[in-house]
Amino acid sequence: MLALLLCGLSLALPPFVRADACKDVSLQNEAPSAGQPFAFDCTHPPLTSGKAHVTWYKYPSKIPVSKNTQSRIHQEQSWILFLPLTQEDSGIYQCVINGTDTCHRIHVNLTVLRKDWCGISGNSQLILPDEYKQILHAGRDGSLACHLNFPQSCVLDSLKWYKDCEEIKGERFISWEMKLSVSNVSAEDGGSYACQARLTHTGKQYTVLNSIIVNIAETNGYAGRIPKIIYPKNNSIEVQLGSPLIVDCNITDTRDNTNLRCWRVNNMLVNDYYNESRRIREGFESHIFSQKDIFYTVNITFLEVKMEDYGHPFVCHAGVSAAYFILKLPAPNVQAYLIGGLLALVGTAASVMYLYSIFKIDIVLWYRSAFHSPGSKEAVANVIDENIKLCRRLIIVLVPESLSFDMLKNMSEEQIAVYNALIQDGMKVILIELEKVKDYTAMPQSIQYIKQKHGAIQWSGDLTEQSQCAKTKFWKKVRYHMPPKRPPPSSSTQPLKHTS
Predict the structure, then answer these.
(1) 3 state SS of 452
(2) Contacts with 212 (C-beta within 8 Å, 6 or more apart), sequence order
(3) Of 245, 237, 261, nearest to 300 (Cα)?
(4) 68-82 pLDDT, tens digit each
(5) Is 413 a catalytic residue?
(6) Which of 383, 381, 388 is nearest to 500 (CA)?
(7) Which CATH number fits domain 18-110: 1.25.40.10, 3.40.50.1980, 2.60.40.10, 3.40.50.150?
């Protein structure tokens, strides 16, 4: 029984042992304002770079923070949200990061202070201890960043900037995304700034404000800290018409520089130039800290590349540095076009030859009936020659009774006609079989020669009116072997009468 009890205790203890065995990573102090939203992201690379489970607690409670998005205080992924903060929320919050074989813990000391909001009228004074110090360089163009960090479920818009409790206006100041660009910085631009935005979460709206203390630095030695644009490099990019495209601008700058980083086209901010269509937009800026420098990335996104975008320089600005890229259409693949054209040509030729082999007879007969060679005036000698050659075909019909061809053994007109047809070039022979002739050896050699040279047409019909129609296959073959119809002679020429 004692062994079973000890075993049960050992099974129950590991969760508490593991919780107590978590390694404390860091302690951070936060002092936000009461009455406005606040969020903190529990990230500690490389602890959260892989598969890790994040849980938030309010010390000393062992009950995790609610994940119900309708709760005023709740957890969303690795974030803890307060919508909004109250002074009773002050305390220590623990973020426990459980990995596969590790457990780490981050402590956040949250002190919620009562703060007076800066009125538009300027009658009240800003009392905000959570300032972010930023630097502008005199005589240069710079920018200020509004550090409002919230999860993606929170939408920030309607950003306004204030200086010494008065809303900032003027040509030297341009508010865009979460930044304020300041041109031709002077010593008077230093002081207390604040950025105010509207935050929307699950249909509810809140007001969030962040204050900034701005110091003005002299320009001495500033030339040695000019930001360097790694990409683009005044290059061209090939892209298909209608395709989406994302181009990164990679910048290296020193830590104490607050240069304006943005994309411009036609000397205007990209977001302003495409304000109506929103087809091309500048993305959010990201950065990575190194020992001395900061590596910035700000991209430009084309939802759809149009013809008007080609040949336009899209310029990335970083302080006094600038670099551009130009879009161009990809070069056509000439080899593919040649291969495709040859294949199409060969396919067309093969199709034409195939169709001609099937409809050859019909095509020749149609051509003969549709196109007649024009007649010409004839001399008397030509008329005589044409009359002699009027009979340009000799038709021999083979019937069973004539297979012996005894009549050709004598010097008759039939035999003379056969020999003349073999000798004269202008007369050709059409051999017609009323029935299939299996053996031509009993026939004269002239008939055998004609059969071998020209072949024979076999009658395959009967004596009905339909089989005697000129459009049947048999009569089409006969017409095919006949010469084309000659046009009638000119009225001015009287041909000689042939009385044979």
Answers:
(1) helix
(2) 131, 132, 133, 134, 144, 146, 192, 193, 194, 195
(3) 245
(4) 999 999 999 889 999
(5) yes
(6) 388
(7) 2.60.40.10
Q: Taking the CA of residue 114 as centre, how many other CA atoms within 13 Å lie in the half-sphere pointing to its CB?
A: 2
For 85, other C-beta atoms within 10 Å of its C-beta total 20
Exposure letters 27-50 (e unless 16+ CB within 10 A, then b)? eeeeebbbbbbbbbbbebeebbee
φ/ψ (deg, to 5) at 323: -155, 150
Q: Are 79 and 73 in contact (CB under 8 A)?
A: no
Cα-flanking dihedrals φ and ψ of residue 375, to 5°? Answer: -75, 165
Domain 226-328 has CATH 3.40.50.261: no
Q: Of all helices (H) and strands (E), which one includes residue 110?
A: strand 103-110
Q: Quote the distance between the C-alpha of residue 63 and its chain's center.
A: 50
Residue pLDDT, tens place only, 438-497: 788 878 887 888 888 888 888 877 666 666 676 788 888 888 888 887 777 665 545 444
Q: Is the Cα torsion angle 428, 433, 434, 440 positive or negative in sign?
A: positive
Q: Which two tokens stand for residue 476?
A: 């089409």
Given a cut of 60, is residue 127 above it in pLDDT?
no
pLDDT of residue 201: 94
The H or E element spanning position 417 is helix 413-423
As a whole number of angstroms, the distance between CA 369 and CA 484 comes to: 8
Contact yes or no for 113/89 (Cβ under 8 A): no
Helix (H, G, I), strand (E, B) or coil at 273: helix
Q: Which of 316, 321, 318, 327 is nearest to 265 (CA)?
A: 316
* Domain 132-220: CATH superfamily, name plus number: Immunoglobulins (2.60.40.10)
Classify residue 88 by burial, with Cβ atoms within 10 Å: 0-12, 13-18, 19+. Answer: exposed
| SS3 state at 342 | helix
Radius of gyration over every alpha carbon of the chain, rounded to an integer in angstroms: 50
From the list 193, 247, 240, 196, the residue with the least C-alpha distance to 216 is: 193
Q: What is the DSSP letter of 97?
A: E
Edge-to-edge strand ranges of the sheet holding 173-176: 142-145, 179-182, 173-176
DSSP H helix total and E strand total for the chain: 8, 28
Tokens of 271: 């977001």
Sequence-distant (6+) residues with CB within 8 A of 206 are 36, 37, 83, 84, 198, 199, 200
Sketch the domain layout of the chain as residue ranges: 18-110, 132-220, 226-328, 332-371, 393-481
Beta bridge partners of 235: 325
- Active-site option among 188, 238, 308, 413: 413
Helix axes 473-481, 334-370, angle to 10 degrees: 90
